[in-house]
Design brief:
The structure holds two protein chains of two kinds. Chain A has a two-stranded antiparallel ribbon. Chain A has helices at 7-16, 20-37, 39-59, 70-101, 103-108, 114-144, 152-176, 185-200, 212-218, 222-234, 250-271; strands spanning 63-65, 68-69. In chain A, strand 1 (63-65) and strand 2 (68-69) form a beta hairpin. Chain A contains eleven helices and two strands. By secondary structure, chain B is an alpha/beta fold. Chain B has two domains: 5-216, 3-Layer(aba) Sandwich (Rossmann fold); 227-280. In chain B, helix 3 (96-104) crosses helix 4 (113-119). The chains are: A mainly alpha, B alpha/beta. The interface between A and B is medium-sized, with 35 and 34 residues.
Amino acid sequence: MTTTLKPATAARAASRQPGPLALALRQGRLELTQFLRSRESVVFTMGFPIIMILIFAAIFDGEIAPGVSFPQYFITGMIAAGLMTVSFQNLGIWIPIERDRGVLKRYRGTPMPKWVYFAGKVIMVVVVGVIETALLLAVSVAVFDLQLPGTATKWLTFGWVSVLGITACTLCGIAISSLARTARSGSAVVTPVALILQFTSGVFFVFTQLPTWMQQVAALFPLKWMCQGLRSVFLPDTFAGQEPGGSYELGRVALVLAAWCVIGLLLCLGTFRWTTRRDG
Amino acid sequence: MDNELAIVARGLRKAYGKNVAVAGVDLEVRQGEVFALLGPNGAGKTTTVEILEGYRRRDAGEVSVLDSDPAAPAANWRNRIGIVLQGVGEFDELSVSELVHHFAGFYADADDPEKVIARVGLADKARARTHTLSGGQKRRLDVALGIIGRPELLFLDEPTTGFDPEARREFWQLIRDLAAAGTTIVLTTHYLDEAEALADRVGVIAGGRLIEVAAPEDLGNRQQAHATVSWRTPEGRTESTESATPTELVTELAARFGGEVPGLTVTRPTLEDIYLQMIGHR
């Protein structure tokens, strides 16, 4: 086999090909632009957790435990559910639409390395997740005196639980996007999964008040552990005794979330489809 | 492998379950030529092209596109080909300019985005969101994204579907310009006049096989086909005769009428006639 690559072309290729980081950042900017310009996704994705916490605060105004108000407990669930919305639901719904429209096919026809597409999604998800969480915290502090974490250690825990959680949910969202056969079925696949996890993982109810079997099922999935990790951040250490394991089990939180990152990544690599089924 | 050939396919096969879409296609496309692939819907055109583009895996056969196997291409391969897909994705929330600039960033040796936008005739739409474009303008945008990387080999899948006649003429000129600059072009089309206007050679695909490859004027022995000579008889009827030697017949008619032959026409089958006859045989 001979090569037809002209030396001049090769030299230009070497000089002008954008680096991996530049490619990822450009893709992230494009994804973010597209997200922010579609007004309904901004309003619903960003507004959902804020509206939910306002409703919760309006319904329940007592204390769960001494010094732990209802909003202080449920903020953890709302943060976790919010992160899951921007990552898992957002991608599980949008990627099938992009696949159906041929956006993915068009990318595959360019020299863009495959991973750049995913990097762009991750950057978009992280930026939107940070903005949405910040808004949620700001509203909560203003409206019902939410107590923000008081120590650097707690902020650090907040950071790693959020990063691991959003990573696991992003990878699972990309993986589940391949289940939808058409653009329209994306939300039909993702929404029930998300709702069931939210109801069983302690987003809408005090987790320990759920039936034990339900707690055990929820413990197989990441959302329960995201909520639990965040409770260690927003609730006093004395509340740890009321957790199912008698403590916040941060080691186990890290382990389960990391395991879901690995599972999600393997599912993505094994099942991701760039074209629709009728495309072959 | 021959460097003069941009594409070589031998014994290309692809089946979807029991349905054989491509049943042994042999194809050669020379560097720098415009090659048109004609065929009815479901003939295997799109499958063949998508195998060449690296979108689909083949079941059997050998394929080389720019000296790479599209199923396992060399690192730089996608930098060297351009694809204009049929009815493909929209980036609703982005403008023409943003999209073309973004795609330019994927290529090592991209063309100037503003120049390409002007070239496809979208200069005054550069700031428009893509969902506000008309069907024809969207196709132009598809073309812009296909040529932004300055490809050596360009695939065009039914590029002028939905164009008005003027836009088609402009588009043809664009293709001729690209071909004149040395770009190899593989075009699938339903329009025979388009193949005739643009292609150096035409391949007719039917039933998953390439049944003929020839210059448009030679397809189906068009040059040798009998001409139809028609004229009006003194009684006012129109008479037609197929003839291998129409000139002789016309001379004879001229003698018979003593000069001008009323209502005289001499026609050879159009490319469309030949094509319909060819695929009708399947």
